[in-house]
Design brief:
Largest sheet: 2 strands, antiparallel
Number of helices: 21
Number of strands: 2
Distance between the termini: 30 Å
Domain Major facilitator superfamily (MFS) profile: 9-477
Pfam family, one: Sugar_tr
Keywords: Membrane, Transmembrane, Transmembrane helix, Transport
Organism: Aphis gossypii
Family: Belongs to the major facilitator superfamily.
Shape: globular
Helix content: over 70%
Structural class: mainly alpha
Length: 481
């Protein structure tokens, strides 16, 4: 009755922009690692910890934000999480001590982890005819963020200005982090001007607020000042909820999900999220570092050096500078920025194809293809010997694994009802961030000596995730018995 029109496209734009801001926040650390390594005297292990700090925050935050979204509201959770991400990102931009930087990245990750709620928020405004397609369009916005981020980094980080005042030092990478924080704060303000999810309000028995929300959407879609034809809802009274403490409520909400008829679906989605997200962040956050090492090798050795695989080339970056006693070099080769932009552009075809054909082929089909395809590309990374081969496989891996993770959020929105949806999506995200945290530490520990281990783990987890998708229901909630 509210119609389908301009409001729904506007909220798609807001939620999509929020997802792009998440891409900025999460992946900006991949440029921070090589550009700030000298200021903080970072080894590979330190870089792994820095990459993992955001994942640690996201791991702890995802679980909590899911409960907040199911108890206080989708919009409420999104506003708080984006403000937290923006504020701590700005603080991290002026950090002068490594532990402070780690803490700020951790808190920023804690905040941005709540952004997974946007799938529930958007999906609960959209009717079943358009829901899957709209949710799948979110991947295009993530891709836009992935493409735009290296453009901003390329513009800012190579600048050579240096502001010093006593202990305080401000360089180009500091400015880059500040710029990446602004989208979160801007979107938090725009979210304040939007209504809460009507399905959430309805599930909480807030009939008057539900009517107000529907009036808002009705007037926007129909561009009219006429009153919404519905004046009351004949539904059960307000749901009686026990007045529990935050921790008790969080515990009961979690137990309620895993003791309900949806427990099997919840367990499978958590395992898939763990495997897929571990694999994705193990490699994606290290792409600039790996490309920088490949470029160093190719410029240091003009002729072939008979390298047989990537691991031998990558390990030389650690040993060679020690031989010639080079000073710390935090310059990022110009080709790295261009390569990351190319990887982002390579994601556009999958981001367009999935929304256009998802209603015909289904979410499961695209999930299986994306996970198995990205798993194969991860395995082939071991055999590359040039930056060009690295670029091609990295593009394939990013395009397929990224869309697969986004589709996992889409299928969770479809599989779980309103009262469980926020918690189910967030718990799955929590398991994913546990894997991402562990994966980045594994890469930091093994990248110099045994890089075959991260590659093997990434490949295996993606293939297992693809096979587990086949155990999920083919369509939405109506097929779950």
């Amino acid at each position: 009755m509210v119609g389908f029109g301009s409001f729904h496209y506007y909220i798609l734009f807001i939620c999509g922009s929020l997802f792009a801001a998440v891409a900025f926040s999460v992946t900006s650390v991949s440029f921070l690692v090589p550009s700030a390594q000298c200021d903080f005297h970072m080894t590979s292990v330190h870089k792994g910890i820095l990459n993992g700090a955001s994942m640690m925050g996201m791991f702890s935050g995802s679980f909590i934000w899911g409960y907040v979204a199911d108890s206080k509201g989708r919009r409420y959770a999104l506003i708080l999480c984006m403000i937290m991400d923006g504020v701590f990102s700005i603080i991290s931009s002026v950090s002068q001590i490594y532990p402070v930087l780690i803490f700020c990245r951790l808190m920023s990750g804690f905040g941005v982890s709540g952004a997974t709620v946007l799938y529930s928020y958007l999906g609960e405004f959209i009717n079943s005819k358009y829901r899957e397609k709209f949710l799948c369009w979110m991947e295009m916005f993530w891709t836009s963020g992935v493409i735009l981020l290296p453009c901003v980094a390329w513009l800012i980080i190579p600048q050579t200005f240096r502001i010093e005042y006593g202990f305080f030092l401000f360089r180009s990478w500091n400015l880059f982090v500040i710029i990446c924080a602004f989208p979160s704060l801007i979107l938090a303000y725009l979210l304040v001007r939007l209504p809460e999810s009507p399905k959430f309000l309805l599930a909480k028995g807030k009939h008057d607020e539900t009517i107000d929300c529907l009036k808002f959407v009705y007037k926007w879609n129909n561009k009219t000042k006429d009153n919404f034809p519905v004046t009351s809802l004949i539904l059960p009274d307000c749901i009686n909820e026990q007045s529990n403490s935050f921790l008790n409520g969080l515990y009961e909400s979690t137990v309620g999900l895993f003791t309900s008829k949806f427990k099997f679906i919840a367990i499978i989605t958590c395992i898939i999220q763990y495997g897929a997200t571990t694999s994705y962040y193990m490699l994606m956050l290290w792409f600039p570092e790996l490309m920088n090492r490949f470029r160093w090798y190719e410029t240091s050795y003009l002729g072939p050096k008979n390298m047989t695989n990537m691991c031998e080339i990558v390990s030389m970056f650690k040993t060679e500078p020690e031989k010639i006693d080079q000073k710390c070099n935090d310059d990022i080769d110009q080709s790295v920025y261009l390569n990351i932009i190319i990887i982002g552009i390579a994601c556009i075809p999958t981001s367009l194809i999935v929304p256009l054909f998802v209603n015909k082929l289904g979410l499961r089909f695209f999930l299986v293809v994306s996970f198995l395809g990205s798993g194969l590309s991860a395995a082939l990374l071991y055999f590359i010997t040039s930056s060009l081969e690295n670029l091609v496989l990295s593009s394939v891996f990013e395009a397929l694994s990224s869309v697969g993770i986004s589709l996992m959020y889409c299928i969770a929105v479809e599989l779980f009802p309103t009262e469980y949806r926020g918690m189910a999506v967030s718990i799955g995200s929590t398991f994913g961030k546990i894997g991402a945290l562990m994966g980045n530490i594994v890469v930091g520990v093994f990248i110099d000596e045994l890089c075959v281990i991260p590659i093997l783990v990434s490949c295996s987890f993606l293939i297992i995730s693809g096979l587990l998708v086949l155990t999920l229901p083919k369509t939405g909630r109506t097929n779950i018995k």
